[in-house]
Amino acid sequence: MSIFYRIDNRLVHGQIISTWMPHLRIRHFVIANDAVPENSLRMTMFRMAIPTEHDFTALSIKNAAPFLNAHRNSTESMLVLLESISDAEALFDAGHPFPSLNIGNIHHASGKDQITNAVFLNHNEQTKLRSLLDRGVSINIQTLPNETPTDLRRVLGVQ
Amino acid sequence: MVDFSLDLALVAGVSGLLSLDRRAAFQFMASQPLVAVSLLGFIFNETALGLMLGAYLQLLWMSCVLFGSNVPRNDTLASVTIAGAVFLYGRHVGEIDPAIWCLAILIGAPICIAGQWLDIKLDHLNLGLATQADEAAQTGDTRKIAFLIFLALIRTFFANSSATAVFTASMLYLLTGLQGVLTANWTDVLGVIGLYLIPSLGIAVALSMLRHRRGIVLASITFAVVAAILTQGYSA
Amino acid sequence: MTGSQNKANAISSWILFRVLWRSFFIQAASNFERMQNVGVCFCMTPALRALYSGDDLNNALKRHLQFFNTHPYMSGALIGASIRIEEDIANGIRHPDDVCNFKRYMMGPMAAIGDSFFWASLRPFAAAWAVMGVLSGILWAPIGFLVLFNLCHLGLRTFGLFYGYRDGEQICERIHRLGLVRIADRTHYLAALFLGATAAIFADRAMHSQFKLADGVEPFLLFSMMLIFLLGLKRSLSMVSLLYIAAFGTASLVMFLNSAFPIM
Fold first, then answer.
1. In angstroms, what CA-CA distances link C69 with B23, B115, B200, C27, C30?
2. If you measure CA to CA, which chain B residue comes closest to A10?
3. Cα dihedral A112, A113, A119, A121 sign
4. d(CA A48, CA C2)
5. How does pLDDT run across B135-189, given as a tens digit for each residue?
6. Chains touching chain C at 3 or more Cβ pairs under 8 angstroms?
7. For the CA atoms of B166, B167, B168, B174, what is the dihedral angle to 10 degrees?
8. Chain A: residue nearest C177 by CA?
9. How far apart are CA B224 and CA C110, in angstroms?
10. 3-state SS class at A113
11. Which of helix, strand or coil describes residue A114?
C-alpha cells in the first residue's frame, strides 16, 4: 500500500508534478475537495497539468473516503491532495483514517502564525492538527522531497 | 591596487545585474552558470577558460530550480564568485592552472548556501513592501507601488553585489595563500578532482533531473557509444 | 454614448505592451506571505487605471494584492485573461469575485505546466546541449542556449498576454492545446542523450591527460563514480556535501598511493 497524503493550498502545481511525482513514482492523483469536481474549468486545468499517462480523480470528501478505502491495497502509488486542514480532518472523520500526512504549502492570511517559509497556521488549524496528532496521525512539514521534513509535534510542542 | 578594486567592482556589478535576472526581473536565464561565467570570461579576456568553467559549474548546479515558494541554492552567486576569483587571480596574482580553478570550486561551492540564505532574507524584507503596497492601494497611489518594485530591485542588486565583492575578495586571498603551500602531491589531488570527480558529480546532478528511469539507461548507452567512437578515432 | 461603451475600448494595444513590460518584474518584490502579489498589482496597474478611477481603482488594486504565485512565464496568460475579466467587471457584466477566483484557481495548474515545461525540461535540455556544445568546441553554445530558451519564454509570455486578453478564460484551453506537458516529457530523453555524450567527452579528456590510469579504465571509473553520485543524490544528499566527501576520499587515496608507490 502506498497512498501519500498532502495538504497544499494550490493542489496541483509545479512542486507536485516536477518533484514529488518522480520522487514517489506517483501513478494516480486524487483530489479530495468538495468544490473541484463541480468546476469544469478547474477540472480541465488539473487534467492538463498532470501528464496523460497518469490517472487523475477528483472526488468530494464524502465520496473520497470509500474510494480510498477501496484502493488501500492497490499496488500503484497514489497521491491524495487536500486543500486545507479542515478538508484533511473531514476526510479522516468521513471514515478514512490515514496514517500519515504531509503539509506542503498553507498560505498566509491575517491572524496566522508563520511556522515555516511556506506554512502559515491560525489557532483553529493548530487545534485541528493537534487533534489529528492525538488520533495517531504522523504529520510532517516538507515542501520538496530533498528538504529535511520537520516533525509537527516539535513545531507545536506536543509530546 | 586601483586596478584590482576596479576589477572587483566589475565582478560585483555584473553579479548584481545577473542576480536580478535570476529571480527579480526578466529571467532571461543569463544568470545560469554557463552563460554568467562565459560572460565574465569574455569581459576578462579569458573566453576559453570561461566557457569551460561555465560548463562545469552549469552541470554542478543544474538542479537549482525555483519551484513555487521554495528557495533553492543560489547557483548564480556561487558560480560568479568562483569564476570572478579565478579571473582576478589570473590578472593580479599568477597563471591560472587547473589546480587553481579546482581549488576555487572546492572553496566556493558552499557559497550557494550563503546565497540561499541571502535570498530568504531578501524575501523576508519584501514583506515590508507588501504591507506598504496595501497602504498605497488604500489611496490608489500606483506610483508608490511602482516605487516599491524599484526599491526591491535596487535592494536585490546591492545585496548580491556586495556579497559577491566580499566573497570574491576573501576567496582570492585564500587562493593566493594556498597556492604557495600547494605541493606536487596536492596538485595531483586537485588534478584528479578536476578530471574525474567534478565532471562525474556534475553529470550525476544533471541526470538526477531526468523524470524517467529509462532516461538514465539511454544516457548510459549514449555514453558507451560515444566513448567507443572517441577512443576508436584516436587509435586509428 | 454611455460610459460602458467607452470602457469597452479602454484597453489599447499600447496598454497591453506596458503590461507586458511590467510583467518582467512580477517576482521583484516576492515575499513568503503573498509571493508575487505586489508584482501582479504592479503589472495590472496600467489596465486598471484605464478602467477605473477613484474608489473603484483602490478596490481593484486591493483585489490584485491578494496571494498570487505562478510560473513567471505563464503570468502573461493569467494577467491577460484577468484584464479581460476586469473589463467585464468595469462594464458591470461580471462580479469582482470572478477575477479573484480565476486567479486563485488557475495559478496552481499554470505553475505546474510552466515548472514542468520550462524549469524541469526545457532549461536542463537546453543547458545540457550547450554544455555538450562548449566541451566539443562550439563557442557560441551559450548564446544558442539563450536564444533557444528565450524564443519559447518570450513567445509564451507575449502570446499568453495578448491571446489571454482576447479570449479571457478560454486562454487555458489554448495553452492546453499547445501540449507543453507532452513536449516536456520528450525533451527529457534528448537531454539524457546530450548528458551521455558529455560524460563521454569528459572520459576522453581524462584519457588524454597526465592523470590517465591504465588503458581504458578511465571511462569505467568516471561512469561508476557518476552512478555512485546519482545514488547519493537520490538519497537526498546535497551536491556540496557529496563534493566534499568525495574530495576528501580522493585526497586520502592519492596521498596514500603517492607515499606507497613513490615512482608513480
1. 13, 22, 36, 9, 9
2. B68
3. negative
4. 41
5. 999 999 999 999 999 999 999 999 999 999 999 999 999 999 998 888 888 888 8
6. A, B
7. 110
8. A48
9. 39
10. strand
11. strand
Min Cα separation A14/chain B (Å): 6
Using one digit for the tens of pLDDT, what is the confidence trace for B4-17? 999 999 999 999 99
**Chain C residues in contact with A44 (beta carbon < 8 A):** 172-173, 176
Q: Which residue of B61, B69, B122 to mutate against A (max A Cβ within 10 Å)?
A: B69
Distances (CA, A) of C73 to B187, C115, C151: 45, 9, 12
Sheet with strand A26-32: strands edge to edge: A55-59, A26-32, A77-82, A3-8, A100-105, A138-141, A150-151
CATH class of A3-156: alpha beta
Residue type at position C234: K
- What's the predicted TM-score (pTM) here? 0.93
Higher pLDDT, C175 or B51: B51
- Cβ neighbours of residue A9 closer than 8 Å, sequence gap 6 or more: A83, A84, A105, A106, A107
Question: Do residues B56 and B105 lie in contact, with contact meaning Cβ atoms separated by under 8 Å?
Answer: yes
> Domain boundaries in chain A?
3-156
Compute φ and ψ for C44, nearest 5 degrees: -75, -20
Q: Which residues of chain C neighbour B210 with C-beta distances below 8 Å?
A: 188, 191-192
Asked if residues C41 and C65 have their Cβ atoms less than 8 Å apart, the reply is: yes
Angle at B56 between CA C244 and CA C199, to 5 degrees: 95
| Distance from C-alpha of C160 to C-alpha of C168, rounded to nearest angstrom | 10
**Contact of A122 with A99, CB cutoff 8 Å:** no
If interface means Cβ-Cβ distance under 8 Å, which residues of chain A face chain B?
A: 10, 13-15, 18-19, 21-22, 105, 117-118, 143-144, 147
Instruction: Give the residue carrying C-alpha cell 566589475.
Output: B10
What is each CA distance from C12 to B101, C3, C25, C81, C90, in whole angstroms?
Answer: 53, 17, 21, 15, 15
Residues 6+ apart with CB under 8 A from A8: A15, A16, A81, A82, A83, A104, A105
Cell of A6: 498532502
C29 touches chain A (CB under 8 A): no
Distant-in-sequence, close-in-space partners of A82: CB < 8 Å, separation ≥ 6: A5, A6, A7, A8, A32, A33, A88, A91
H/E segment holding residue A5 = strand A3-8
Q: Does C33 touch chain B (CB under 8 A)?
A: yes
What is the per-residue pLDDT for A26?
92
Chain A residue with the nearest C-alpha to that of B210: A22
Phi, psi of A118 (to 5 degrees): -110, -5
Q: How far, in Å, CA of B180 to CA of A140, rounded?
A: 50
Its ipTM equals: 0.94
Distance CA C198, CA B223 (A): 8
Q: Which residues of B touch A22 (CB under 8 A)?
A: 211-212
Nearest Cα of chain C lies from the Cα of A93 at a distance, in angstroms, of 26
Contact call for residues B208 and C234 (beta carbons, < 8 A): yes
Q: Delimit the domains of chain C by residue range.
A: 13-109, 112-260
